[in-house]
Amino acid sequence: MTPLFYRDPFFKAQVDALAGQFALEVVRSRPRNGLYLEYNSEGLTLMYADEPKLKGVQVDFVHGRSGYRRKHGGAEAVTKALGIKKGFRPRVLDATAGLGRDAFVIASLGCSVTMVERCAPVAALLSDGLERARLNADLGWVGERLHLIYASSLETLADVASDVDAVYLDPMYPHKKKSAQVKKEMRLFQLLVGDDLDADGLLAAARATHAKRIVVKRPDYAEPLNHEKPQAELKTKNHRFDIYLP
């Protein structure tokens, strides 16, 4: 259980709402060890008490990497992989939402994206990030195009993918990169959720839906999910998009 800490009583309503929606334990004393969520004036952040100098992880669709990709591009590969083109904006199910970065970029291109996340603390971070994004004047489309479902994709994929054009999968995997940004986020996420050991089952579940295309994002060194050869591949500098047909 990852506790949710807050100090200022002004935020009680927001904290209670998150705790109720995602079954989180609320504490009023900052934990002395392990991972915890902290809510303050900047929103919800995942923290690691064992390393207090380590900056926490937050879902921020307005600034940072997501904001840069929205303003300056960087989505060409995922655009091609999902079949986005003039006059066609597929309805996309992101079955492994994580921090929601790819889902946000896909939605910024005009697609309706349903994000599914099964880890309660991560889903809470996503929910908080979406709420703050809706308050930004430049992101008025967020409420219409980005939707979050707190559930296991393995258990709900058949239902939630009934009316989508594409299923997008980006399961957790061990990172080889040593950059500070990747190291920070992946260390916390590995501690929080571990590896997606059931990711092979996600591919089978996705291919059993009526989606016209299944796109799996993989690091360039990784085997295809379930060792199933895709019908097509799209390679970038460090990643590969495996494309499957139903």
Structural class: alpha/beta
Helix content: 25-40%
How many structural units, i.e. domains?
A: 2
Name given to the CATH architecture of the largest domain: 3-Layer(aba) Sandwich
Q: Mind telling me the CATH superfamily name of the largest domain?
A: Vaccinia Virus protein VP39
Mean pLDDT: 89
Give me the CATH fold name of the largest domain: Rossmann fold
Shape: globular
Strand content: 15-25%
Q: Within the largest sheet, what's the order of strands?
A: 7-6-5-8-9-11-10
User: Low-confidence stretches at least 5 residues in length (pLDDT < 50)?
Assistant: none
Task: Give the C-alpha Rg.
Answer: 18 Å
Query: Quick one: CATH class of the largest domain?
Result: Alpha Beta
N-to-C SSE string, H for helix and E for strand = EHEEEHHEHEHHEHEHHEEE
Tally of contiguous helical segments: 9
Describe the main β-sheet briefly.
Answer: 7 strands, mixed
Gap between N and C termini, in Å? 37 Å
Number of strands: 11
Please describe what this structure looks like.
The chain is 35% helix and 21% strand. The protein has 246 residues and is of the alpha/beta class. The protein has two domains: 4-48, S-adenosyl-L-methionine-dependent methyltransferases, CATH 3.40.1630; 64-244, Vaccinia Virus protein VP39 (Rossmann fold, 3-Layer(aba) Sandwich), CATH 3.40.50.150. It has a seven-stranded mixed beta sheet, sandwiched between helices. A four-stranded mixed beta sheet has the order 2-1-3-4. Strand 5, helix 4 (101-108) and strand 6 form a beta-alpha-beta unit. The longest helix has 15 residues, at 120-134. The mean pLDDT is 89. It catalyses: guanosine(1516) in 16S rRNA + S-adenosyl-L-methionine = N(2)-methylguanosine(1516) in 16S rRNA + S-adenosyl-L-homocysteine + H(+). Keywords: Cytoplasm, Methyltransferase, rRNA processing, S-adenosyl-L-methionine, Transferase. One of its GO terms (molecular function) is rRNA (guanine-N2-)-methyltransferase activity. S-adenosyl-L-methionine binds at residues 101-102, 117-118, 152-153, 170.
